[in-house]
Structure formats: structure tokens, C-alpha cells
Amino acid sequence: MLRLSWSCAAGALILAFAVSRPAAAQVPAPSPAAAAAPTISFAPTLAATHLGFPAEDQPSRTVNAAATRMDRREGRIFAIVGGAAVITGILIGGDAGTVIAVGGAGLGLYGLYVWQR
Q1: Every domain of the chain and the residues it spans
Q2: Which residues contact 81 (CB under 8 A, 6 or more apart)?
Q3: Are 104 and 82 in contact (CB under 8 A)?
Q4: 48-99: pLDDT as tens digits
């Protein structure tokens, strides 16, 4: 008798597992990233055979409007003002004078660059 009740319970359990489906909340959702991932080919391409950079990647060589308006005269003015700042910084002395002298040297060198262009 005990064997009959166990076999009936086991049969009912097997039948329940075979017929039942998982609930909608337990069904895994399809992964959108996996479904939309394109296939990537690792084969050699014709673009990989070129040596160097394509012409589309090169920046244009046009000068911006501010640089075209800058005259040699402005470079000369920058150089003179930078030289005056160096002399002023040396006369002031100390840390503040050093900062003024270094700033004047930078301005003077930039002025020489624009002047000699």
C-alpha cells in the first residue's frame, strides 16, 4: 500500500513537470544586444593594405581669419612690449619681478615669431 501511494505521487509529479510550462515572469527576456550585434569579419581588407593616412583625415591648410589679419607690425609691437616687460621685471626684482620678466620673455618671443613669419 505504501508503494502504491508513492508510485501515484511520483507519477503525478512526472506528469505535472511534463505538461506544465514556466510562468511568463520566469521566461528569460531576449537580449537586445545579442540580437542586434552585427557579425564582424576578421579577414584582411583592401583598406588595410594602404600605407599612410587617407586624404580625408588630413586637416585643411587654410589659415583662420585672425591669423590672416595679424600683420608683421603687430609682431613687432609684441616683441617691444615683451622686451619692456623683461626690463621692468629685472628692475622690480624678487618673485614678482621674475614672474613679470618670464611673462615678458614669452610675449617677446611670440612677437618675434609673428614678426618673422
Answers
A1: 70-117
A2: 104, 107, 108, 111
A3: yes
A4: 676 766 666 666 666 666 666 667 678 889 999 999 999 999 999 999 999 9
Distances in whole angstroms, Cα of residue 86 to Cα of each of 22, 45, 77: 84, 59, 14
Phi/psi at 46 (5° precision): -70, -30
The contacts of residue 85 (CB under 8 Å, 6+ apart) are: 100, 101, 103, 104, 105, 107, 108
DSSP label at residue 24 = T
pLDDT digits (tens, 9 = 90+) for 22-48: 666 666 777 666 555 567 777 777 766
| C-alpha span between 32 and 26 (Å, rounded) | 18
Residues 6+ apart with CB under 8 A from 114: 70, 72, 74, 75, 78
* The three grid cell numbers given for residue 7, joined into one nine-digit string: 508510485
Task: Retrieve residue 65's grid coordinates.
Answer: 581669419
Q: Distance between CA 31 and CA 38 in Å, rounded?
A: 14
Calculate what percentage of the chain has a pLDDT beyond 90: 30
